[in-house]
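Onboarding guide, step 5: your first structure request.
Type a short instruction followed by the sequence, for example:

Predict the 3D structure of this protein.
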Amino acid sequence: MKKFLGYFLSPIAIVAFLLALCIFQPVQWVCYRFFGYKAHKRAVDLLNFCLTGTMYILGNTVTFINKQHLPIGRPMIFISNHQSLLDIPPLIWYLRKYHAKFISKIELTRGHIPSISYNLKYGGGANIDRKDPRQSLMEMGKLGTRMQENNWSAVIFPEGTRSKNGRVKPFQAGGIAIILKKCPGALLVPIAIKNSWKVVRYGLYPLNTFTPITLEVLEPIETGTTSVDALVAEAEDRIKAALSPLTP
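The system replies with structure tokens like these:
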């Protein structure tokens, strides 16, 4: 039944999503060119509030759970499992006060995706060329430096690719290690994302409906006490525990 409803509701949600991207493209340009970083960030935050809202057209819900007392003004590395591209808008919106930056493929900055390409190019994240390891390392290092200088945070999906069935893939610690070299005081904060994969289980059409998506902030992990590999493994274990048991 939920899939059947998706045939009717998906076009409305997709049009709303694309419309938001098109509207905020010139808004971002004006904000960045004439008012700088802060205005541009507010525009990006509002854009992602709207993008998150398109999920409700499908009858889906997005719930953000944060029972942790996260510090303001301290760099943090949010480590999350990754289930779909739909993970990103609510993460940007709900983590907005922490200035969370993302790591993306450099090809996306060179494209012409309304709003997204512009934000990736000027938003302060790391845009890496996966075919050029040296460039990727340098970009990650630059992100760590910006985090240290501005008290920004970063969101990392250490699985490296999206999970199509919700099961967590092995975490890789390389990128996190590079950031911590430049920003050694950053706090690691695991986030468990549940059920966003179910929205796109049939692809982009139809999108699934009436699916409860949750994003839960888990207990932070202090860095500097053990190896980066051990820290990332602990974050992986916490996320897996928060997602267990998985429902079909």
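Each response can be followed by summary notes, for example: DSSP finds nine helices and seven strands in the chain.
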